[in-house]
Each structure stands twice: as structure tokens, then as C-alpha cells.
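quick one, 80 residues, struct below
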Amino acid sequence: MSPEVSSPLGPICLDQKQAAVFIGMSESWLKLQVRKGNGPPRLELSGKVKFPIAELVTWMAQHLERTNNASSKPIDLSAT
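---
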């Protein structure tokens, strides 16, 4: 039985399936990104891969920032 990583407010780490749902991608996509070294930071606890929620949030923010800066322009809401 592996130890659960949690706080009084709930879990602080997610397993791979939960992490995939959290970031809005499939579990197979997440596995591939982890294998390529492009995925979010993770921990291995008792032989199980866990993704700290704080690291997932940071990874998503960095990924969105790169995507937005590379190919899109801000939407002008004042033109409505």
C-alpha cells in the first residue's frame, strides 16, 4: 500500500490519470510527454508516479504563456 500525499485541504499530489484530467489531456498524451522529457515535473513515491498539483499549475501557466506569446495576438475587447 502506497502512502497518500495529502493535506487537511485534500490531496497535494495526483496520480498520472488524475493529472491528465487536471491538465485537460489524455493519459497517453501525458505519458508520452513525460517519456520525451516535456511533461510536468513529477515525483516517484513507493514506485508510483505522482504529480504535485502546484507543479502542474506552474507547468500549465508556462506552457500557456509560451503558446500565447508565440502565435496569437490579444483580443481587443474595446471594439465591441
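The mean pLDDT is 79.
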